[in-house]
Design goal:
single chain; alpha+beta; four-stranded mixed sheet
């Protein structure tokens, strides 16, 4: 599969799931401004994934027109435990490289499951993406968005409630449509 196809699937997911269901009320602006950067890493292993993370952090440092970055692993980290090991190491890199408070990391995976949730809980689809990926956000932008959005602290609860209301089949179909 080409990088363009993978990016297309991811951008459809951002538009059709994240934005259209308003899971992230701040995402539409970045999509409209075309300030989302996508990095596709094939045959990723922990080491080259962390090197790519550092490269993307430095890229964000240089390019202030980029609001957010998705590092996509289309053929790696399918095992959720292996993916969470990557996330843990990535957060350590953020801290060790002095990026804590500058960028934050969000987690998205096709098999994402909230703690204490059943795998078939539709709420898991708030974080289930087409591919395993790391999402880098500018902390300053997140803080600014949160302060201007009424009841921002309720967004996760609202998302879970909406996904459960829509139901498992709807959420599965919505994500599956991103591959078409």
């Amino acid at each position: 599969m080409s990088d363009n196809e993978i990016i297309s699937h991811t951008s459809k997911w951002i538009k059709n799931v994240v934005i259209d269901l308003n899971f992230c009320p701040f995402a539409a602006k970045a999509l409209l401004k075309k300030s989302i950067h996508y990095s596709v890493l094939h045959k990723a292993e922990l080491q080259n994934s962390l090197e790519t993370l550092i490269h993307e952090l430095q890229h964000l440092d240089r390019e202030d027109t980029i609001e957010t970055t998705f590092i996509i692993f289309p053929d790696s980290f399918s095992d959720i435990e292996e993916y969470f090991d990557l996330v843990e190491q990535a957060n350590t890199i953020l801290e060790m490289q002095g990026y804590e408070g500058i960028y934050q990391l969000a987690e998205f995976h096709p098999d994402y499951c909230f703690a204490k949730a059943e795998p078939e809980d539709p709420a898991n689809y708030t974080n289930r993406s087409p591919y395993p990926m790391l999402h880098l956000l500018r902390e300053e932008s997140v803080e600014k968005a949160v302060t201007t959005y009424k009841d921002a602290h309720l967004i996760p609860e609202r998302n879970i409630e909406l996904a459960r209301k829509k139901g498992l089949l709807y959420m599965q179909a919505l994500r599956a449509a991103c591959f078409q």
